[in-house]
Amino acid sequence: MSRTLRAMMLLLILASCGGGHKTPPQNMDDACSIAKQRPKYVKAFQATERRWGVPVHVQMATIYQESRFRGNARTPYNYVLGVIPMGRQSSAYGYSQALDGTWDDYRKQTGRRSAKRDRIRDATDFMGWYMNQSREKNGIALTDARNQYLAYHEGQQGFARGTYKNKTWLMRVANQVQDRSNIYAAQLANCKSFR
Known about the structure:
Elements (H helix, E strand, L loop, with lengths): L2 H15 L13 H7 L1 H14 L3 H12 L9 E4 L3 E5 L11 H11 L9 H19 L6 H10 L1 H6 L6 H22 L6
Antiparallel strand pairs: 1-2
Helix pairs in contact: 2-3, 3-6, 4-9, 7-9
């Protein structure tokens, strides 16, 4: 095999490894910066808002909290004796940190069998589907980032039982999600790259 052909094959292999936007955008505190860096994200957020009614800023704040915009995010490992890895804390994966079972339910109910958790469009659509279930089952407004996040974290039944009420750390995080959602909403209102 010629040197040129080998070099081209190596270049092709290396090129196929990158560019998937599984790494987070820079300056995640600025919604306009995210929109400018990742136009595909904007299209995904807007498609989900059209289909499910979940505002873009609520989606963005939830994804920030769940994965920091990392498409390949996973939960940490559990360790025995502090050193022996014994599997991950949960099956949560991707932008939305969807669990295996919930993701399977989403794919069956929506007919999106080829959906992947590490694709932003699929992850946002999943969030729209799930948040609509939270609205139907628990009466949570789609604009209510705080309570949507609590139901997202605890599950709809857990939210209905109020399992979050004794978790002060989770209440604090949910308040942070609401604050970030409000900030993102204000930024997007003045963002040229979002329109």
